[in-house]
Amino acid sequence: MTVPVLTSPDQPRTTPLRVLICDEMNPGDLHHEGFEIDYAGNLPREETLRRLSGYDALITRSRTKVDRELLEAAGDRLRVIGRGGVGVDNIDLEACSRRGILVLNAPESNNVSAAELAIMHLLAAARGLTRSDRKTRAGEWDRKFLGVELKDKTLGIVGLGRIGSIVADRAQGLRLKVVAFDPYVPENKFERLGVERATSLDELLGRVDFLTVHTPLTEETQGMIGARELARLKPGAIVVNAARGGIVEEAALVEALSAGHLFGAGVDVFVEEPPTPDHIFLNAPNLGITAHLGANTYEAQERVGAEIVGRVLAALHGDVSKGAVNAPALDAKTLEALGGYLDLGEKLGRILAQLLPGAHDLEVTFRGEFPADPAPVVTAALVGYLSGSTDERPNMINARALAKERGLNLAVREVQDSPDYQTEVIVKVTSGAEGEKQRTRTVGGTVFGRSPRLTRLRDYRVELAPEGFILIASNQDRPGAVAKLSNLLGTWGINIAGMALGRAQKGGQALFTLTLDDNLTPEQLQAIRDLDVIDSAFLVRV
């Protein structure tokens, strides 16, 4: 799709561009030359449906549901929708994209407020604030409760993105030692923040006195802190979840509190909001709860209102460099020429994100003659590599900015010859602190017609469609490895949909890939690694 641009600053209009703000916020100055901005906070849905066809842009918070009914009522004039804040759960992105409507958000505005709320929950849990408040209001003057100090303790942070980084800074001001786990963040960011890196979640959990999570909710992070993980924490630990409901399993958290394993906890988010009157959190011991207030400060509301208005106005003039959620900055001709390569680039990036997350360098090599300037394929590779590792949804507009923010260096090479294929895209990522051994992973691919094909894994030639679950295994080039692995998969009822083999030389190290119909559990993957014919095994989902 093309970016919706109504005009540019150099193309004056005889009529102003009209913007409707239908949810309550502090939008700042509403007087901008060339624009007519109508603020109608908490506008009834029926009134929004009636009025929307007369506007070029709509700005909402979470209250207004931007669904097909609303988009149809908007007609053909609406071109931009701005969502004040981070989430876009109330917006049908697919329907907006099909209608050529650009969706923007303003995720940075709430960062400080969200981080400070997490620190508040940590302090409140450490001193039994909610417990003492409840007892005192009930007429019980209980001074026997002993809290814990934060000074010289260790705070574990899961997710060192924007909010997690602010939490780390504030925690260090409270004299806490900070350790973090985030496989998607390069080493130089840990060094810059003065935060120790945990190599695994298990390592982090076993070391910390307090735990706070600041990661987006994805398939990978859903339920990542469950009963097993909570049991690994030290007795008397404190857990805070001010990120997304479901990252910390609700029932497991209540059980750990009730059993006395945890000293306390603080929660700002629920799986279902608002919670039902019988929700298990409401009667849990030593648990402080707030009503998803992370963004609710005067300062954050002022920032988010003014910021989303500014981004919407800029987008209406063609500047979509900030906050774009759904639209690639490509024209239809480029999309037609590079469509298969864009898909390939994103899949190569997604594979590498699972093989070597947290890289500090990403290099893309183009071999052969491409049907158009392949530069957008670099951005597509970044989209794939960053997917699932950042609070913002990476896309063709914001991926380079997100990569820069993550400390991911980018390099591009072009080579005229392509000895094996007419064209080939090779993506390599590198990680490892300066002075340490560098780790690299390389994948490559080409396009047949419009269908991507994987052609290279490390130094091995393969050829398979990058789809579904791909098991990548290395072994010594001797008979029997594939048969043993196939038999093991058969005992689990897992079907092999495709296979590709590669080797550097006869009798040396070899590599083979199996495309599976189903996912593998961590225990099944470990059983594969334990086979005497397998040197290493990884599973990626494309």
Automatic annotation (TrEMBL):
A Pfam entry, by short name: PGDH_inter
EC top class, as a word: oxidoreductase
Domain ACT: 470-542
NAD in keyword set: yes
Keywords: Amino-acid biosynthesis, NAD, Oxidoreductase, Serine biosynthesis
The protein's Enzyme Commission number: 1.1.1.95
Function: Catalyzes the reversible oxidation of 3-phospho-D-glycerate to 3-phosphonooxypyruvate, the first step of the phosphorylated L-serine biosynthesis pathway. Also catalyzes the reversible oxidation of 2-hydroxyglutarate to 2-oxoglutarate.
Listed name of the protein: D-3-phosphoglycerate dehydrogenase
Annotated source species: Deinococcus aluminii
